[in-house]
Amino acid sequence: MNKGYRSLSQLFSKTNFIGSYSDYSKIPLMDIPEICFIGRSNVGKSSLINQITKVKNLAKTSKTPGRTQAINLFLISDRIILADLPGYGFSRFSKNLKDQLTQLINQYFINRKNLKKIFLLIDCRLGLKSIDLDEITIIGESGVLFSIILTKIDKCIRNHRIKNEEDISNLLKNYPSSYSKIFSTSIIDNQGIVDVQKDIYGLIR
Predict the structure, then answer these.
(1) What is the SS3 assignment for 194?
(2) What is the pLDDT of residues 135-187, one digit of tens each?
(3) Which among 75, 58, 91 is positioned nearest to 187, based on CA atoms?
(4) What is the pTM of this model?
(5) Going by fewer Cβ within 10 Å, which terminus of the chain is more open, N or C?
(6) Which homologous superfamily is 3-202 in?
(7) How far is residue 94 CA from its own chain's centroid?
(8) Half-sphere exposure of 149 (CA within 13 A, CB side)
(9) Is-contact 188 153, C-beta < 8 A?
(10) Is 122 helix (H, G, I), strand (E, B) or coil?
C-alpha cells in the first residue's frame, strides 16, 4: 500500500457521531474543517456517506425517502467534520416542515465559518431537476466551494451518464469561482469513492 492510500486509510479509520440538530443555534462549532453532503430525498446520500467513511450504518439508510430531518454531524479522526444535511424535494413533507428544513439548511450554508466544501448529490438516472437548480443557486450564492456527486451510476447507461455530466458541466460554468468538479460514483462497485475520499483528504492537508 503506497503512502497516499495509507493516509486515506488512516483518515477514515475512526468516525464518531457528534449529534443531530434541528435548531441551528444548537450546532456546536469546532475549530476544524467541515464538509457537508446534500441532495434530493432518495438520492443515496446515506449509503454514500457510509461507503466514504467505511462505517456501515453510520448514516441511517431507509427505503422511505425523507428520513433525515436534521443536520447530523460526524467527526472523522478528530481532523474534519462531516455534516449530513436533510434531503430536499420530498413531496410528503408538510409545508411547515419544508420551510423549517429550508431555513435550517440556509442558516448552515451562511453561518458555518469552517465549512470548506459542499457536496451536492444528483441521481445519475434522473439528472438535474429544477429543484436541484434552485439548490445550486443557493449554494453558489453562499460562496462556499462545491462539487457535484453523481450517484448510482451502475444503474445508469453510459451514454445517459455522459450526457448528465456534460449538462452539469455546462451549467456550472456559471459558477467559476466556487464550483470544483464532478464525481461519478457507485456504492455497488465502489466507483469514484476513493476519488471523493482523496478530495476530502486534500481539504485538511
Answers:
(1) helix
(2) 998 898 888 999 999 999 999 999 999 999 999 999 888 887 788 889 999 99
(3) 58
(4) 0.90
(5) C
(6) P-loop containing nucleotide triphosphate hydrolases (3.40.50.300)
(7) 24
(8) 31
(9) no
(10) strand
